[in-house]
Amino acid sequence: MIVADPDIYEFEINEEDDFLMLGCDGIYDSASNEELNKFVWLCKDGRKNTHEQAGEAVDNVIRLSAYKESYDNLTCVLIAFRGFGSGNEYAKLSEKVL
User: Fold this and answer.
1) Nearest by Cα to 20 from 59, 76, 70
2) Model-level pTM greater than 0.85?
3) Is the dihedral of CA 3, 39, 14, 49 positive or negative?
4) How many structural domains is the chain composed of?
5) What's the Cα-to-Cα distance from 42 to each of 10, 19, 36, 51, 69, rounded to whole Å?
6) Is residue 63 domain-resident?
7) Is residue 4 one of the residues assigned to a domain?
């Protein structure tokens, strides 16, 4: 079923924002915001450029949702801001884990 009245949120982007992930309900039905945030940072690879890292993060988020057996549409877009290429507590954690 298509909803004619979408959820719309307005917020101001600031220097502390690293990325914005837009996804359909198939993504967010299978994982929480916090889980997806951690997962994106754990997928980062400092040897690749921001575009490649964002693309791999989206691919991995879709795979995660499919692995968690989301039976809905799996569409995801990640918009990387300046902070996505720099250090973050999750990025630092990924260096230790990987």
Assistant:
1) 76
2) no
3) negative
4) 1
5) 27, 14, 10, 16, 21
6) yes
7) no
